[in-house]
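Hello,

Following up on my earlier ticket. Below are the two sequence lines again, exactly as submitted.
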Amino acid sequence: MEVRIPKRTLAEGLSILERIIPSRSSNPILTYLPLELSDNGLILKGTNGEVDIEVRLPAEIQGTGQMLVPAQTFSQIVRSLPGELVELIFGERLELHSGAFNTQLSITSSEGYPELTFGNPGSEKISASRLAQAITRVRYAASTEEYRAIFRGVQLEFSPQGLRSVASDGFRLARYDLPITLESRKLVIPARSADEIVRVFKDVQGEVALAVGEGTLTLVGDAVRMAVKLMEGEFPDYARVIPQSFVLEATLSAEALQESLKRVAVLSDRNNHRVNLLFNEGKLDIDAEGDYGRGREELNIETSGESQIMVAYNAQYLIDALAPVEGTVRIKLSGPTSPSIVQATEDSGYLAVVVPLRV
Amino acid sequence: MEVRIPKRTLAEGLSILERIIPSRSSNPILTYLPLELSDNGLILKGTNGEVDIEVRLPAEIQGTGQMLVPAQTFSQIVRSLPGELVELIFGERLELHSGAFNTQLSITSSEGYPELTFGNPGSEKISASRLAQAITRVRYAASTEEYRAIFRGVQLEFSPQGLRSVASDGFRLARYDLPITLESRKLVIPARSADEIVRVFKDVQGEVALAVGEGTLTLVGDAVRMAVKLMEGEFPDYARVIPQSFVLEATLSAEALQESLKRVAVLSDRNNHRVNLLFNEGKLDIDAEGDYGRGREELNIETSGESQIMVAYNAQYLIDALAPVEGTVRIKLSGPTSPSIVQATEDSGYLAVVVPLRV
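Thanks for your patience. The regenerated structure is below:
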């Protein structure tokens, strides 16, 4: 059993797995890396119990078989190798040669390592980078609180009209629509697993095939297979918190508003991060007051609707909602204490809802 | 009382103070920033109890006086200002204007703020960047242990022959010589305060003037004054641990040795980080063995003296000792268990001593 593989290929493969393979675990075998020599290449695997990943790397291979190496040590060694090529020779130990460096690494039989199962995708595919984008745009709104556990996930709604991603913590909501034809179903992915999907697929060219099985979503790319455990249940009906009629609409640069909010918020109350926004015929006055004083800034905006309205927000919630918006933002107010909408004028897929603070 | 100052000038001044002004303190007044309007410019101050710093910034000033502003809030605001110019107007509150942003910040009288005293330097001066360099070269060897507290400092030895900086933790020692004529004395600076000297002066052009007073060293640059509390006592005689006769000398690339040690050390014992170095007629064999296996690498070296000798080190100690060496390193062995010397062939000022591990 021998493998010859470019150091870079091996290091890139390991970097996909490194974050999910735990460095400590109550089940120590999960800290090991399964290496499988197959006719299809060198296969690396890892799991954190929530996300299973398999990476297939092109390599010159003699023989077939599978064994475990200590994941962290193996990664550290591979990253620091002096040569461009790595030679792996499996015997009682794993001999690794690269340039003038040689190592003999203890290996373990793969017996006892959990079998990772991946769904078999049908014909449903989606652009890897756009899937990552749909998750990234809404991820910030997911809850970190223990209660209402379902809100600690990102909901993906597949339908013939498209993929809709949604996240909410009850005080704010983010929704993103990607036009694509899919079979109808709803899944909720734990937010941390959603982060892993983004990390692995955001820079991948091409498409991933999707397979939804009993409690898992499998994503299959050219070199990577990933199975993600789903959360049970689905989001409560959130459509009713999205307001439909508005008293005022304002348009302005998302970046200017975000920068201005950051400055003014420095002075805001440390507990509720309250900033007051006074929309007033072509002007937006932002101000905040806390223990150390008061900050105030005026921006030029375009408005339609009522001539004047004051709304207070948690500054951080508004800053988060603006982050995915490039260019111009449209803010739609349904009233001083009822939910506001944040939309990107140049990307109709994105919509955020922020509930104002009580006056 | 009014100040007009470029945002950049003010932000740079604050960045010098930010790290030493505590964000929390049992003496809360130390979390404030004294702002002094004087004929010499805008003066900012701060202290962490060990290091006092005063920064003088050129500014358009009307009036004189001094007051305190909350340091962290003020810094955060200044960093994020939209305009290029900042206007400060002192009244009951501090009004700060920049671009479309305005703030009113609460201010406090400077009563109760400790008076910072700086020594008056004579004619002794030293290049700011080279002083920083002399400290940086040896800093790593300072102890972090509670016992033998003096070793938690960096000793500066002034003499007509030069400035010698020394640090040691009892298992290793680093020494750096800078040729310059100074009046003879020895000072020990707490390692953390030494880090502040480096941070503030490493990129400063020109010279700093030195004043040694009762228990303090004052450093005076063009715009910055810094007073550092000294440790009591001086280093025990360390000269006797520096070996004078050698059984083998080896020369090789410092970077190649460092990289190789890092790779091999991945496999080393987690407790003592032991690596074995076998010097053997033009070859250096490095190997380490731990729970996960064994690593080994061979480097070409030039040697003189005995034909073969094996020495074991804590890999991290040797890696640290090599870090300040650019180009070629000369390693001088006095025996398998007696101290070894690490020298930079291209910088005669640097010398490190590493005590081998017992075989």
